[in-house]
Amino acid sequence: MTHRRTVAAGAACWILAAVGYVVAEFATALAVPGYSYTEQYISALGVPAWSPRHYLINGALYAQGALFVLGAVLVVRAVRARWLGALFVLLTVAAAVGDALVAFVYGGSPLWNDGYEWLHALGAILAIFGGNLAVLAGTTVAGRAVGGWSYRVVGTLIGLAGLVIFWMLQNYDYFTVRYAPIGTVERGCVYTVMLWQLVTGVWLLARRR
Fold first, then answer.
1. Which residues contact 191 (CB under 8 A, 6 or more apart)?
2. Which parts pass through the membrane (predicted)?
3. How far apart, in whole angstroms, are the C-alpha atoms of residue 175 and residue 180?
4. How many domains, the chain?
5. Measured between alpha carbons, how far is 13 from 187 in angstroms, rounded to an integer?
6. I want to staple 61 with a disulfide (CB 3.0 to 4.6 A). Which of 103, 183, 187, 208 is the partner?
7. How far apart, in whole angstroms, are the C-alpha atoms of residue 132 and residue 28?
8. Neighbours of 99 (CB within 10 A)
9. Over the stretch 45-79, which tens digit does the pLDDT of each residue have?
10. In terms of residue numbers, what domain contains 12?
11. Over the stretch 123-177, which tens digit does the pLDDT of each residue have?
Protein backbone atom coordinates (compact mmCIF):
# COMPACT_ATOMS: atom_id res chain seq x y z
CA MET A 1 0.00 0.00 0.00
CA THR A 2 1.44 3.36 -1.01
CA HIS A 3 1.92 6.30 1.35
CA ARG A 4 -1.13 8.11 -0.02
CA ARG A 5 -3.35 5.06 0.12
CA THR A 6 -2.26 4.29 3.65
CA VAL A 7 -3.07 7.84 4.77
CA ALA A 8 -6.43 7.64 2.99
CA ALA A 9 -7.24 4.33 4.69
CA GLY A 10 -6.40 5.80 8.09
CA ALA A 11 -8.51 8.87 7.36
CA ALA A 12 -11.43 6.67 6.32
CA CYS A 13 -11.17 4.72 9.60
CA TRP A 14 -11.46 7.92 11.61
CA ILE A 15 -14.34 9.32 9.60
CA LEU A 16 -16.22 6.04 9.91
CA ALA A 17 -15.50 5.92 13.65
CA ALA A 18 -16.86 9.42 14.22
CA VAL A 19 -19.91 9.28 11.97
CA GLY A 20 -20.78 5.72 12.95
CA TYR A 21 -20.70 6.53 16.65
CA VAL A 22 -22.85 9.66 16.39
CA VAL A 23 -25.42 7.90 14.20
CA ALA A 24 -25.55 4.86 16.50
CA GLU A 25 -25.98 7.04 19.58
CA PHE A 26 -28.79 8.99 17.93
CA ALA A 27 -30.56 5.80 16.82
CA THR A 28 -30.24 4.39 20.34
CA ALA A 29 -31.59 7.55 21.95
CA LEU A 30 -34.61 7.59 19.63
CA ALA A 31 -35.83 4.35 21.22
CA VAL A 32 -35.75 5.78 24.76
CA PRO A 33 -38.78 8.03 25.38
CA GLY A 34 -37.84 11.26 27.09
CA TYR A 35 -34.09 10.72 26.86
CA SER A 36 -32.23 14.03 27.12
CA TYR A 37 -28.86 14.65 25.50
CA THR A 38 -28.29 17.55 27.87
CA GLU A 39 -29.46 16.04 31.16
CA GLN A 40 -28.42 12.37 31.00
CA TYR A 41 -25.20 10.40 30.67
CA ILE A 42 -24.31 8.71 27.40
CA SER A 43 -23.77 5.37 29.14
CA ALA A 44 -27.41 5.33 30.26
CA LEU A 45 -28.17 4.37 26.66
CA GLY A 46 -26.14 1.18 27.10
CA VAL A 47 -28.26 -0.26 29.91
CA PRO A 48 -30.40 -3.13 28.48
CA ALA A 49 -33.09 -2.83 31.15
CA TRP A 50 -33.73 0.77 30.15
CA SER A 51 -32.58 1.12 26.54
CA PRO A 52 -34.16 -1.14 23.87
CA ARG A 53 -31.33 -0.47 21.41
CA HIS A 54 -28.50 -0.71 23.92
CA TYR A 55 -26.59 -2.98 21.55
CA LEU A 56 -26.18 -0.10 19.08
CA ILE A 57 -24.37 2.28 21.42
CA ASN A 58 -22.33 -0.48 23.04
CA GLY A 59 -21.34 -1.85 19.64
CA ALA A 60 -20.47 1.65 18.48
CA LEU A 61 -18.13 2.06 21.44
CA TYR A 62 -16.23 -1.09 20.49
CA ALA A 63 -16.06 0.03 16.86
CA GLN A 64 -15.00 3.56 17.80
CA GLY A 65 -12.05 2.26 19.77
CA ALA A 66 -10.96 -0.28 17.17
CA LEU A 67 -11.15 2.19 14.28
CA PHE A 68 -9.33 4.87 16.29
CA VAL A 69 -6.41 2.48 16.82
CA LEU A 70 -6.42 1.15 13.26
CA GLY A 71 -6.45 4.65 11.81
CA ALA A 72 -3.58 5.66 14.09
CA VAL A 73 -1.46 2.66 13.08
CA LEU A 74 -2.02 3.38 9.39
CA VAL A 75 -1.24 7.10 9.58
CA VAL A 76 1.80 6.58 11.82
CA ARG A 77 3.09 4.00 9.37
CA ALA A 78 2.52 6.33 6.43
CA VAL A 79 4.30 9.35 7.90
CA ARG A 80 6.97 7.21 9.59
CA ALA A 81 6.57 8.85 12.98
CA ARG A 82 8.71 7.13 15.57
CA TRP A 83 8.49 7.84 19.29
CA LEU A 84 5.62 10.30 18.90
CA GLY A 85 3.86 7.84 16.63
CA ALA A 86 4.29 5.09 19.21
CA LEU A 87 2.91 7.40 21.90
CA PHE A 88 -0.06 8.27 19.71
CA VAL A 89 -0.88 4.61 19.07
CA LEU A 90 -0.54 3.77 22.78
CA LEU A 91 -2.93 6.59 23.69
CA THR A 92 -5.48 5.38 21.14
CA VAL A 93 -5.16 1.88 22.61
CA ALA A 94 -5.84 3.31 26.08
CA ALA A 95 -8.90 5.11 24.73
CA ALA A 96 -10.08 1.94 23.00
CA VAL A 97 -9.72 -0.07 26.22
CA GLY A 98 -11.76 2.63 27.93
CA ASP A 99 -14.48 2.44 25.30
CA ALA A 100 -14.60 -1.33 25.70
CA LEU A 101 -14.87 -1.12 29.49
CA VAL A 102 -17.71 1.40 29.27
CA ALA A 103 -19.55 -0.88 26.85
CA PHE A 104 -18.86 -4.13 28.70
CA VAL A 105 -19.41 -2.98 32.28
CA TYR A 106 -22.76 -1.28 31.71
CA GLY A 107 -25.29 -0.60 34.45
CA GLY A 108 -26.79 -3.91 35.55
CA SER A 109 -24.10 -6.05 33.89
CA PRO A 110 -22.72 -9.03 35.85
CA LEU A 111 -19.50 -7.18 36.69
CA TRP A 112 -21.43 -4.08 37.70
CA ASN A 113 -23.68 -6.11 40.01
CA ASP A 114 -20.67 -7.87 41.53
CA GLY A 115 -19.22 -4.55 42.69
CA TYR A 116 -16.95 -3.79 39.76
CA GLU A 117 -18.77 -0.67 38.61
CA TRP A 118 -15.48 1.16 39.14
CA LEU A 119 -14.31 -0.47 35.90
CA HIS A 120 -16.96 1.55 34.08
CA ALA A 121 -15.64 4.75 35.67
CA LEU A 122 -12.07 3.77 34.80
CA GLY A 123 -13.16 3.12 31.24
CA ALA A 124 -14.71 6.56 30.98
CA ILE A 125 -11.48 8.18 32.19
CA LEU A 126 -9.37 6.21 29.72
CA ALA A 127 -11.74 6.92 26.84
CA ILE A 128 -12.11 10.65 27.49
CA PHE A 129 -8.79 11.68 29.03
CA GLY A 130 -6.77 9.22 26.98
CA GLY A 131 -8.75 10.04 23.86
CA ASN A 132 -8.12 13.77 24.12
CA LEU A 133 -4.44 13.23 24.86
CA ALA A 134 -4.38 11.08 21.73
CA VAL A 135 -5.91 14.00 19.84
CA LEU A 136 -2.98 16.22 20.85
CA ALA A 137 -0.38 13.62 19.89
CA GLY A 138 -2.29 12.70 16.74
CA THR A 139 -2.42 16.32 15.61
CA THR A 140 1.36 16.43 15.45
CA VAL A 141 1.54 13.07 13.69
CA ALA A 142 -1.20 13.78 11.15
CA GLY A 143 0.19 17.28 10.70
CA ARG A 144 3.16 15.74 8.91
CA ALA A 145 0.84 14.48 6.19
CA VAL A 146 -1.37 17.58 6.13
CA GLY A 147 1.37 20.21 6.11
CA GLY A 148 0.97 23.86 7.07
CA TRP A 149 0.09 25.30 10.47
CA SER A 150 -3.68 25.79 10.29
CA TYR A 151 -4.51 22.12 10.83
CA ARG A 152 -2.15 21.91 13.81
CA VAL A 153 -3.81 24.92 15.42
CA VAL A 154 -7.31 23.48 14.92
CA GLY A 155 -6.35 20.00 16.13
CA THR A 156 -4.55 21.32 19.19
CA LEU A 157 -7.48 23.54 20.15
CA ILE A 158 -9.87 20.59 19.87
CA GLY A 159 -7.69 18.45 22.14
CA LEU A 160 -7.18 21.20 24.70
CA ALA A 161 -10.90 21.96 24.74
CA GLY A 162 -11.60 18.29 25.43
CA LEU A 163 -9.18 18.22 28.36
CA VAL A 164 -10.58 21.41 29.87
CA ILE A 165 -14.15 20.15 29.59
CA PHE A 166 -13.09 16.81 31.07
CA TRP A 167 -11.66 18.70 34.04
CA MET A 168 -15.00 20.49 34.35
CA LEU A 169 -16.73 17.10 34.30
CA GLN A 170 -14.50 15.78 37.07
CA ASN A 171 -15.33 18.83 39.17
CA TYR A 172 -18.99 18.94 38.20
CA ASP A 173 -20.47 18.90 41.71
CA TYR A 174 -18.12 21.63 42.90
CA PHE A 175 -18.84 24.35 40.38
CA THR A 176 -19.73 23.18 36.85
CA VAL A 177 -23.24 22.24 37.97
CA ARG A 178 -24.00 25.94 38.15
CA TYR A 179 -23.24 26.48 34.48
CA ALA A 180 -24.30 23.46 32.43
CA PRO A 181 -26.25 20.17 32.78
CA ILE A 182 -24.27 16.96 33.16
CA GLY A 183 -25.12 15.49 29.77
CA THR A 184 -23.87 18.59 27.99
CA VAL A 185 -20.58 18.62 29.87
CA GLU A 186 -19.95 14.91 29.35
CA ARG A 187 -20.70 15.10 25.65
CA GLY A 188 -18.51 18.17 25.36
CA CYS A 189 -15.38 16.18 26.19
CA VAL A 190 -16.47 12.99 24.41
CA TYR A 191 -17.42 14.63 21.14
CA THR A 192 -14.09 16.46 20.86
CA VAL A 193 -12.51 13.10 20.03
CA MET A 194 -15.07 12.40 17.30
CA LEU A 195 -14.79 15.96 16.02
CA TRP A 196 -11.04 15.57 15.71
CA GLN A 197 -11.41 12.25 13.92
CA LEU A 198 -13.83 13.77 11.43
CA VAL A 199 -11.85 16.98 10.88
CA THR A 200 -8.54 15.16 10.56
CA GLY A 201 -9.95 12.50 8.27
CA VAL A 202 -11.50 15.04 5.92
CA TRP A 203 -8.37 17.21 6.00
CA LEU A 204 -6.14 14.25 5.15
CA LEU A 205 -8.36 13.21 2.25
CA ALA A 206 -8.53 16.78 0.96
CA ARG A 207 -4.74 17.17 1.06
CA ARG A 208 -4.40 13.93 -0.86
CA ARG A 209 -5.92 15.49 -3.99
1. 22
2. 55-76, 83-106, 118-137, 149-169, 189-206
3. 10
4. 1
5. 21
6. 103
7. 24
8. 28
9. 999 999 999 999 999 999 999 999 999 999 999 99
10. 1-207
11. 999 999 999 999 999 999 999 998 889 999 999 999 999 999 999 999 888 887 7
